[in-house]
Design brief:
Blueprint: H1 2-29, H2 35-55, E1 65-69, E2 73-75, H3 88-92, H4 96-124, E3 129-133, E4 136-141, E5 147-149, E6 155-159, H5 167-182, H6 185-198, H7 203-226, H8 231-246, H9 249-253, H10 268-278, H11 285-306, H12 309-315, E7 340-342, E8 348-349, H13 360-364, E9 369-377, E10 389-393, H14 396-407, E11 411-412, E12 414-416, E13 419-421, E14 423-432, E15 449-456
Parallel strand pairs: 4-6, 14-15
Antiparallel strand pairs: 1-15, 2-7, 3-4, 5-6, 8-11, 9-10, 9-14, 12-13
Helix pairs in contact: 1-2, 1-7, 1-11, 2-6, 2-7, 5-7, 6-7, 7-10, 8-10
Length: 459
């Protein structure tokens, strides 16, 4: 179910982008560094979808649940007169192999392209001259730079025209590149690029990687200005450097080469954002506090949503590559022969699943009751739509309450041969009233996976 997993990953990445934007704005209100937000967000958008299928394993059952029977077979085929309604994951599974092939080809192409661009850059650096400038080891080229290249051993690259500028401008350029080296921004940018190669199909990852590059430059600009540079003069210097860099034959022939290092001016879009950040007017203390509280609360809400079990369950669907039983409108004892498969593990009710509501009129009359429900647990652990059937109920309102609770129940799906499969289960509910004799109930047959759940009326 690669297609469904990819869609879930993109949705998860979109939420990560929203949370990162809020945190970025929140940090900017107090003029703090933001690049760590974006690289962590990029890592999360790639790593969690990959790890969730391996790590998400719902545990155990609720404390008020007792397993009555342990049927060890799952229906693999239903009578032909019952229509089959494959779920979304099943319909999308035909795209799995084409998507995997496209993924592999795209990642390989991006890696080869990165290598070719690095080779072109090295060719333009062949005449670089090592030189010490203001105590800093640099490489001086004819017209390439200012920039930082290299990851584990970053080197500052200065163009020959750097030495034609006055001392103040040279100091700002050198300070900019030194800050990149000190912050190890090359490592951050390389990680972001590798993550886009790992998940090239996810637009959220590309957006996060791009914002990581912008954040590294904005943070670097802030450090340079804090070091004594004038914001207006520094912005004019960036425009001048951008004009010189973008006219270089390397970037004219391949603009993507600008992403191989920390080039001082960057792309026009990045430069526009950087200058806007420099010229941002400070907010009043009250306005800053209100915005901080609003953004912080919203960011926490988005993070909580993205970290919910629903996303983990959807991402874990990549393990569900086969469906052994089709969906059905109702679940009834089979009237025709069926094929059965022995289960490696059976469906298990997840701890914390909400019990049914004790009907108000039964509470008022201090009446106990009981009900049975049958349903089909699908390969993701959810109850299949339309599969809930109330087998018996001592009171109509109890049946209604049980039907709602059973449809929302969550399970750990049954497994056969390492695959998740569907399984028919029964939920038996006892509605107990303190001081009142329990309502009698007959549970049959005994060949269906059955859970007994007690709902006690509040005192």
């Amino acid at each position: 179910m690669i297609a469904l997993w990819m869609l879930s990953s993109i949705a998860f990445g979109a939420l990560v982008v929203i949370a990162a934007l809020m945190l970025d704005t929140l940090l900017q209100l107090s003029a703090r560094q933001t690049r760590s937000v974006w690289i962590v967000a990029t890592l999360s958008a790639v790593s969690w979808p990959l790890l969730a299928p391996m790590l998400w394993t719902p545990e155990g059952t609720t404390n008020m649940t007792r397993v009555l029977t342990t049927a060890n077979a799952v229906v693999a085929g239903l009578p032909a007169d019952i229509p089959s309604m494959p779920d979304l994951g099943t319909r999308l599974s035909v795209l799995d192999i084409p998507l995997l092939l496209a993924w592999a080809v795209t990642s390989l192409w991006l890696m080869v392209r990165w290598g070719l661009l690095a080779r072109v850059l090295r060719r333009h650096m062949h005449d670089a001259e090592p030189r010490t400038v203001n105590g800093q080891s640099t490489l001086v080229t004819r017209d390439l730079g200012p920039a930082v290249i290299g990851v584990l051993r970053p080197r500052m690259v200065l163009p020959s025209w750097f030495f034609e500028l006055d001392g103040g401008l040279r100091a700002m350029i050198l300070s900019h590149e030194v800050e990149h080296v000190r912050a190890r921004d090359q490592v951050t940018l390389t990680i972001a690029r590798l993550l886009t190669i790992l998940a090239p199909w996810n637009p959220a990852v590309w957006l996060l990687a791009r914002r990581t590059r912008i954040a590294t430059e904005v943070d670097c600009d802030r450090r340079v200005i804090r070091g004594g540079a004038t914001a207006s003069q520094y912005a004019q210097l960036l425009l001048f450097v951008a004009h010189r860099q973008h006219s270089h034959p390397l970037f004219a022939a391949s603009p993507a080469a600008a992403t191989l290092g920390s080039h001082m001016a960057g792309s026009p879009t990045t430069l526009r954002r950087r200058i806007t950040a420099m010229r941002a007017s400070p907010l009043s203390s009250r306005a800053r506090t209100v915005r901080s509280l609003a953004l912080g609360g919203a960011a926490i809400m988005v993070i909580a949503i993205s970290a919910s079990p629903r996303f983990a369950r959807a991402l874990a669907s990549v393990r569900d590559a086969r469906v052994l039983s089709p969906a059905t409108a109702t679940v009834q004892p089979p009237a025709k022969p069926m094929v059965e498969f022995k289960l490696d593990s059976q469906a298990t009710l997840i701890e914390g699943t909400a019990p049914p509501r004790y009907p108000a009129e039964l509470l008022a009359s201090r009446t106990a009751g009981s009900s049975q429900a049958q349903l089909v647990v699908d390969t993701s652990g959810l109850v299949m739509t339309g599969s809930v059937k109330i087998v018996s109920a001592s009171h109509p309102t109890i049946g209604q309450s049980v039907a709602q609770a059973a449809a929302a129940a969550r399970f750990r799906p049954a497994r056969v041969g390492g695959r998740n499969v569907k399984q028919l289960v029964r939920l038996v509910y006892h509605f107990n009233m303190p001081g009142v004799a329990p309502a009698p109930i007959t549970v049959a047959p005994a060949d269906i996976r059955t859970f007994e759940i007690t709902v006690t009326a509040p005192r």
